[in-house]
Prior knowledge:
With 267 residues, this protein is mostly helical. It is built from 13 helices and no strands. Helix 1 (7-32) runs antiparallel to helix 10 (169-191), helix 3 (47-56) runs antiparallel to helix 4 (60-79) and helix 11 (196-208) crosses helix 12. The longest helix has 26 residues, at 7-32. The relative contact order is 0.18.
Amino acid sequence: MDILGFEFMRNALIAGLLASLICGIIGSLVVVNRIVFISGGIAHASYGGVGLAFFLGLPVLPVTTVFTICAALIMARVTLHSRERSDTVIGVIWAAGMALGIILLDFTPGYNVDLMSYLFGSILAVPQSDLWIMGAMACLVLVLVILFYRGFLVMSFDEEFARSRGVPVDFLYFLLITMVGLCVVMIIRVVGLILVIALLTIPPYMAERRTRSLSRMMTLSTLLSILFTVTGLWLSYAVDITSGAAIIAVASVCFFLSLLLPDKRVG
Length: 267
């Protein structure tokens, strides 16, 4: 509890809890819809937004959010009807986004940005202003998932049946990819863009093996994300290691330990 006496640790904890909430919800939809590779493409393409923000001298979080959503919508359009055959295009957008970010940072006057903080996270440096933006994005995603939950549920498990029942699958798919983009922007501050996919997929995968419904999967995944984030933060403080890597290390160890246990679905 002593570490909560520091404001930066309180901010880090709040940022981690907000990211965990969204990871548990959106990550569950990512796993059941089999769009992990698309999410990875969005995460790495978002680096272009980081470079653009520094090049223009604008706040990083808003600019990265807009850039990432634009990249996410392009990927959604490309993969809408041919998810299995669009990996090449996603790979190109993935690489182009990172290259653009690096080039823009190279051209930024007086460039002194710590690349490691964006590649592997900078949760201990999250300012209070960013917490408000992260909180607003978390509320937006939560409201959208609640409003369209039944549609996401049907689309996730039987897309053809959803179309036959008049569910707006195309709209929901674009909405899901957009929310993945918002989620990615939030997690970048916690674990960095290289480790985003781990936090977005490990808790949902573990939860999927223990639950029978999407809602319970989201709940358990959120709780696991919170556990990994809080434990990783404490570990990084106690051992003096990078917080983002510590969070993912905790999640990875728990993931491999969970594979030793038999599947036992409840609910």
